[in-house]
Amino acid sequence: MKRSHSLAWLVLFGALSAAPPARHPRSIFVPEAPALSAPVEIRGTIKLEPFYGPPNYGETPESDRQEMALILKLDAPICISSKPATPCKASEETHEIQLIWPKALGAWPHEGDCVQVKGRLFRAYSGYHRRPLLLSITETALCSR
């Protein structure tokens, strides 16, 4: 009887110790000055989000221009640290970023497309920025799932 309990504990302990470690979001330092941001590569799914533009940005929806924001829903969350080599707080974790798509890359991808993008992250500073974090894209490719 004792031997079977010992074996059961050994099996349980082995199963628990073999479990993969909890995944923490990838930590990325984003300085206040966008030019100082290091290039990053991020993967996610495209989402198009409508918003009201000029002249009144939603105060008069019937006369305001409808605009679209290109949002990337990340495959895995990232943690944006405000200082290099600093542990992230839960409030710094993000699951979506807004993409700044240069005209040189051609047409936007379709909603629902999985893309791998490279570029520089920066913090929102304008009313046109729909997420606290944006990525100015330099390269993009569709994912191979």
Outline the structure in words.
The chain has 145 residues and is mainly beta. The chain has one helix spanning 2-17, and strands spanning 26-29, 39-52, 66-81, 93-100, 114-123, 133-142. The chain has one domain (24-142): OB fold (Dihydrolipoamide Acetyltransferase, E2P). The protein is built from 1 helix and 6 strands. Strands 2-3-4-6-5 form a 5-stranded mixed beta barrel. The chain is globular, with a radius of gyration of 21 Å.
- In whole angstroms, how far apart are the ends? 50 Å
Q: Per CATH, what is the topology?
A: OB fold (Dihydrolipoamide Acetyltransferase, E2P)
Strand content: 35-45%
Main-sheet strand order equals 2-3-4-6-5
- Helix percent reads 10-25%
Could you report the average pLDDT, rounded to the nearest whole number? 78
Spans of 5+ residues with little confidence (pLDDT < 50)?
4-22
**CATH level-1 class:** Mainly Beta
Tally of extended strands? 6
User: What Rg, in angstroms, do the CA atoms define?
Assistant: 21 Å
Question: Which architecture per CATH?
Answer: Beta Barrel
The main pleated sheet reads as:
5 strands, mixed, barrel
Count every helix, treating DSSP H or I runs of 4 or more residues as helices: 1
Q: How many domains, as an integer? A: 1
Q: Topology as H/E string?
A: HEEEEEE
User: Based on CA inertia axes, which overall geometry fits?
Assistant: globular
Helix/strand structural class: mainly beta
